Amino acid sequence: MTAETTAVSVRSDWIRVTVDACQVFLGSECEDLDTFVANIHELAARAPSPATPLEAMIFRGLIAEIMLRELAREGLASQECVKVLASNAPRVHDPASRRPATHPKIKLALALMSASFQRPHLTLREVAAAVHLTPWHLSRLMRKETGVGFPGYIRALRLNHAATLLRTSSRSIKEVAAEVGYKYGGDFSKHFAKQFGVTPHLWRRRHARK
Most buried pick, 132, 184, 197, 205, via CB within 10 A? Predict the structure, then answer.
């Protein structure tokens, strides 16, 4: 296992215990701020320590959002703060109807997909197993939460990254396609043109750094 792979890996057992801990916290009553703070400490203690940068990022994000939403509910933080937090969530280029996810397991699934989209054979079944959902349940929840299914989300992640590579690197279009997880260059060019309205070659000509 390379250092890069290790840095973006997430343990399935860690996901399961962390999600369970978050669900227990969300089901608890917080009568006052002291109780809330105590519950946050209990949540941090209940979840196993992150072992990779991606696990740490996921856990910090979950804790921050839980804290901010609870404080807003108690009138200790404005609803505007919650809106700012939601607006900073990663977004895909298309479709425009995508909504920020709120379900803990869907958030974890999207984080896994964002870290692993460059793998050509990443499957719905694999991601579903990592977050302890059936493929059917994950697919249904993804579409309900974000408005985008698994294939569309993965495709948008790959194409957005490809657009950045075309703009900032000197890699050939074939190399870019392989870098973002496309096995066949023809499929890459077709999907790219559908999402951005121009071919990869024309995109590079228009947007490449001078």
Answer: 132
**3-class SS at 4?**
helix
Does the pLDDT at position 175 exceed 90?
Answer: yes
Q: For residue range 68-94, list pLDDT tens digits in order.
A: 666 555 555 445 544 444 444 444 433
Contact 73, 100 (CB under 8 A): no
| R_g of the chain, CA atoms, integer Å | 19
Question: Regarding the domain with residue range 153-207, which homologous superfamily does it belong to in the CATH classification?
Answer: Homeodomain-like (1.10.10.60)
Given a contact cutoff of 8 angstroms between Cβ atoms, the answer to whether 196 and 94 are in contact is no
Phi, psi for 75 (deg, rounded to 5): 80, 15
Please report, for the chain, the start and end positions of each structural domain, with discontinuous segments joined by +: 1-88, 153-207
- 8 Å CB contact between 131 and 138: yes
Kindly report whether the global pTM for this prediction surpasses the value 0.90. Answer: no
Predicted confidence band at 67 (pLDDT cuts at 50, 70, 90)?
low
Residue 29 backbone dihedrals phi, psi, to 5 degrees? -90, 135
CA distance 69 to 128: 27
Q: What CA–CA distances, in Å, run from 162 to 60, 73, 155?
A: 28, 40, 10
